[in-house]
Amino acid sequence: MKDLPLRRGQLVTTFGPGSLVVSPEGETAIIGALDKWYYDKHGNRLNSLHEYEVQEPRLKSLLKVNKLFLPPDFRSGSQYRGEGNAIQQTNTDVYIPLLRFPTWHYCPKCKTLYQLPLSSRTSWYHCRECNKLTKMIQVPFVIVCEHGHISDFPWREWVHKNENTLCEGTLKLVSTGGTTLDSLKVECSCGKDRSLKGIMIKNKGDKQNNKSALSVMLNEEDEKEYTCPGTKPWYGSLEEKDECSAYPVAVLKNSINVYFPVKVSAIHIPGDRSAEIEYLINLFEKRGITSSLLETHETMNGKVEFIKKLCPPEISDYTDSDIERAIIYIQQGDISQEQENNQSEWIEHQLREKEFETLSEEVDHSENLKVLKEWQCNEIDETDIRTFFSKVNRVTKLKETIVFTGFNRLKTNIEHLNIFEIREGRKLLFKDPDAPENNWLPAYKVYGEGIFFTLNTERLKIWEEQPSVREYYKKYLERYRNSKRFIDSSIYNPRFVLLHTLSHILINELSLTCGYNTASIRERLYLHETQSGVLIYTSSGDSDGTFGGLVRMGLTKNFFSVVYRALEKAKWCSSDPVCTEIGMSLGQGLNRLNGAACHSCAYLPETSCELQNLSLDRSLLIDQEIGFFNTI
What we know:
Blueprint: H1 8-13, E1 20-22, E2 28-31, E3 39-40, H2 57-63, E4 67-69, E5 94-95, E6 98-100, E7 104-106, E8 113-115, E9 124-127, E10 132-135, E11 137-138, E12 141-144, E13 150-152, H3 155-160, E14 171-175, E15 184-188, E16 193-195, H4 213-217, E17 249-252, E18 260-267, H5 275-286, H6 291-294, H7 300-310, H8 320-332, H9 337-341, H10 347-359, E19 370-376, E20 389-408, H11 419-429, E21 440-455, H12 457-464, H13 467-482, H14 495-510, E22 521-526, E23 533-540, H15 549-552, H16 556-570, H17 578-585, H18 619-622
Parallel strand pairs: 4-21
Antiparallel strand pairs: 1-2, 2-6, 3-5, 7-8, 7-11, 9-10, 12-13, 12-17, 14-15, 15-16, 18-20, 19-20, 20-21, 21-23, 22-23
Helix pairs in contact: 5-8, 7-8, 14-16
């Protein structure tokens, strides 16, 4: 496959191993497995990876991995050659592996199908029918299954209506004119032909059996259903296959359900360490001192002396004991034993419990997290919108570490994530996940700013106990159970939907006033058990962070006017009365998991929402009977 430029952040958030990426020329490739990420163009693995290591001990401990690494950046070796052609810069000519997929192509003139190897760097191929070199076009379909496999569409098996066919005739993909799959058919030189009608139907007949139309229809004479071939082309081979009993579905190769990355993120938390230890940890990060680098010294004294040599003169003001404590944190982290043992709890809950506590207080001794107290409720006033909130803090600087843990196909299935899901996800990312050198995950760091607020807990409890609210929310929970989705314990309280919806309407309003577009503002929800807070923030890959436009809107004089305008706009949707009436009676959106919420009023771009635009309902905010803010 030709070289294709990708940003580091994309390799963690969008185009991880197993994903399909399209080049400017329209060619599609699949990102290779993590086993081959840190190799140069000669096939040699890099000797040292410490410059790529990310320091986030909380995430390493919870995810049970030894290391977190940034995706490699590309440095052309020719630019770093000095006199005598000696390379002056390390880690040059490092590529992320790209493999051609789907491998089936067709001639644009005669429509003959050809299968090119995964390693082919060009789509130019000699067409036997036309008898000339031709730039082939990749077929538009692949097949995927819910276990993460992706395979070429079975063209030969489909046209012969037999997955065990022995015919080796020439295939053609012919269009008879039209815009539906009925107009596309496969022809074989043996005389067989078959249209592609129905290949993308996910459920054939009874929805409970989960059989795709492709599985049911492929074998015509044999009653056996066609099952997934179990191919993992991102491993570098089409021959190595898993045994898989899932029923595959044909999808367009650029369809959104081909790849759903699963990520875990954490805000940097200073913890209970002293200002001295915090300073040393930040100094180590700036100087590129990682746990990998420290492992080159066996004794603690050796590590301390090594750091003293790398960090003069700043290190001279600190004792060896301080340096040792900072080293221990970098290598082991500070996760409690209780968190270590609780492997079944949702990973995000464990991460956010400490974040919520930290963001609720003022933080000024850390370079990676600065929180300023802005406003706190002291007394209740039923007519004052501010007393619906408990506190508002301005986060003038934050560092977020995003870790790529795996992916899904066909469905997101990321409402919960525990150690078991992490282990299963790593099996898809590595060809050999049990190898000692593969005990790591890719990560990316972003810096930014935000506004953190919590709602008044006493008012929330009173509101949630109202009979009208509980009766209304009971129907909502019933729809959620019928959807057979994972139900987190926090969703049993109406505040779950209330806070999520409030976050959305505030982001929409803030985007009009703070200088950032909606897609660049994100939410981080703290909704578990006693938590009732939201962090609205923006971030970038630049270590200097962002421009301050969002955090400025967290000032008391600005924030509550934004809240008031957002609630006023939430009272009416351009799709009303349909949006409100259908939302309150039947529900709407995917699996009817939303109330009064749609693209015209409460939805956000995919990059902004944590819950895929589900669990939203304006009625819980502003309805005259059940709305939390109905007195405004």
